[in-house]
Amino acid sequence: MMQSNESYRLFIAEKPSLARAIADVLPKPHQRGDGFIRAANGDIVSWCIGHLLEQAAPDNYDPRYKKWQISDLPIIPDNWLLLPKSSTHKQFTVLTQLITNATEIVHAGDPDREGQLLIDEVLNYCQIAVEKRRSIKRCLISDLNASAVEKSLKNLRNNQDFVPLSTSALARARADWLYGINMSRLCTIKGQNRGYKGVLSIGRVQTPVLGLVVKRDLEIENFVSKPFYEVYAIIETTHKETFKAKWQPSESCAPYQDDEGRVLVKALAENVCQRIKNQSANILNVSNKKKELAPPLPFNLSALQIEMAKKNNLSAQEVLDICQSLYEKHKLITYPRSDCRFLPEEHINQISGVIAAIGHNCQTLVDAIEHVDVTIRTKAWNDKKVEAHHAIIPTLRTVDFTKLTANEQAVYITIATQYLAQFYSNYRYAELQIDVEIAKGKFVAKANQMLAEGWKQLFRSANNQNIQDSEPLLTKLVKKGDQAWCHDAELINKETTPPKPFNDATLLSAMTGISRYVSDPNIKKILRETDGLGTEATRAGIIELLFKRQFLIRQGKTIRATEIGRRLIDMLPTKMTVPDMTAHWESQLDAISHKQFNYHQFMAELQQSLYLLIEQLNRVQFNH
Questions:
Q1: What span, in angstroms and rounded, lies between the C-alpha atoms of 552 and 544?
Q2: Residues 423, 457: Cα–Cα separation, whole Å
Q3: Is the CB of residue 42 less than 8 Å from the CB of residue 7?
């Protein structure tokens, strides 16, 4: 270690890989110490290994909490304790000594809520002087390549600017502890009283996710299929061209329809068929609307995980692990735990370099690169939408692509293709519709006709070369007021189908689009902006934890609840098993990070809800 009177600037990275990337751009030669790297100019780079501190266990507050008793609940600390983790105690000792002796400190945690707190909590633990604390700088690094790291080191910000982000993460950590400890103890004790031997783990995010799966499984099991009927008129124009138009039931048919407007009475559909055969058809309206569809935005982590689950059947955790490897080991992509799908406008200067790197790394995308137009600017480039981090895109790095695993290649290609899509023109199509009246009934024919393939050519599969959406309608051959002829009718028998079981893609999609599953209309409204159950960094771990706890099981590609998972959800108050409460917490945590909500108010509301839930849960039994 160094002398206490030695002055130096200390960079604190979240993990060793980031520390090495920072050290690589500092003056050489380097001296490697035990838990730090010293540059030639005296700068020192050290690191955490994830969280070096952890929330104290209940018995650290009071030895009586070693025994789990309902009478002790809720356990709510007056003064919160953080303790050094035993597994990383050596690095913690190194880092705290470096912090104590440093004259300048640069916080270089990952650019997200957890990354901010992870290093702030170590700095707080060291109880450094107020003046020294106020001078701490923040370095935001989302690309581990040397040029990007150098740029970040030249754009240091004051760490005080990120206090709200850290406070939000602190509120989340403490809320998770309070909710998880108290609810898990209560449920486990009640389960053990009924003969269950294991721990019934409860979490503010994991339990509603389990609730989603249990509810879906029950919907499938209890589903009763019902037949329904559709009628199509076969219409011939005066030019002897034919097209089909679908019957639109009138209001008088409502008693014979379900909530989704499907006709449930076959006799009604058969009657319509008889009435329209060999009848004149009046063309009420013809529309031909030209529309455009912009390319999909670059990926954030959840969108990428959903895409890779669909394409390659990879789990959320597998995609996260692959992304961490592409980011830390290969330096081929930018920071992967991002919740943002937009890019800073300063990145425009790197477009040509990134595209050249993609072409070097991935031969399969060379043809796609030949058709890019680097002057195109999609809505992805938007400084107002970018905060601590931006969308996941390829870096300027070139490598021997054959050294990557097949899954690493697949994820990189997917990220790169989405980036290249930003430099393709919009997909253009015509939305065609003909409204027809036959025997006083209304019929509609609809179709989309491709006009220009644009960015969609990038995503065209080898066995689907023709992406024309449907047969073009005859809008040029018919016009409003024309007479045509319905020479036949077609009755289609269909059956309602149950919802599909969750799989990796749809469960992740449910977690990110949780407002679809929220019952409270006020919370639903809030969540349209601050949407999501869990965070980009935690969703994969939450799903894996439910498998580890044996609450979920895989059946082929589907995800189902186990019997224990079902019984747990069955015993809990509905409030704990639906996303409303935890999704509302997420929106409040997001508001804290933007100085729009108060930490103390959040914790007070949480504690109040704990008392109510414990009282409510005490009245139910766990049936094992």
A1: 9
A2: 12
A3: yes
Q: Could you give the angle at which helices 316-324 and 301-312 cross, rounded to 10 degrees?
A: 120
For 263-300, the pLDDT digits (tens) are: 999 999 999 999 999 999 999 999 999 999 999 999 99
Which residues make beta-bridge pairs with 9? 104
b or e along 513-531 (b: 16 or more beta carbons within 10 Å of the residue's beta carbon)?
bbbebbeeeebbebbeebb
Q: Catalytic residue among 196, 232, 335, 517, which?
A: 335
What's at 79, amino acid-wise?
N
- For residues 624 and 611, what is the distance between their CA atoms, to the nearest angstrom? 26
Determine the residue type at 43: D
Q: Is the peptide bond before 74 cis (omega within 30 degrees of 0)?
A: yes
The full 3-state SS of 222-249, as one line of letters, equals CCCCCEEEEEEEEEECCCCCEEEEEEEC
Q: Is residue 335 annotated as part of the catalytic site, yes or no?
A: yes
Measured from the Cβ of residue 494, the count of other Cβ atoms closer than 10 Å reads 12
**What does the alpha-carbon distance between residue 156 and residue 179 come to, in Å, rounded to a whole number?**
37
Q: Are strands 44-47 and 552-555 parallel, antiparallel or unpaired?
A: unpaired
**CA dist list (Å): 43 to 7, 24, 35, 109, 580:** 9, 12, 14, 17, 48
What pLDDT, in 10s, does the model give residues 1-41? 555 567 899 999 999 999 999 999 999 999 999 999 999 99
Three-state SS letters, 527-569 = HCCCCCCCCCCCHHHHHHHHHHCCCEEEECCEEEECHHHHHHH
Report field, pTM of the whole predicted structure over 0.85: yes
Residues 223-237: b if buried by 16+ CB within 10 A, e if exposed = eeeeebbebbbbbeb
Question: Which letter, b or e, does each residue of 432-442 get, where b requires 16 or more Cβ atoms within 10 Å of its Cβ?
Answer: bbbbbebeebe
Q: State in Å, rounded, how far the first CA of the chain is from the last one.
A: 57
Nearest to 583 by CA among 539, 509, 524, 540: 524
CB 40 within 8 A of CB 23: no
Nearest residue to 18 (alpha-carbon basis) of 150, 122, 144: 144
Residues found in the chain: 624
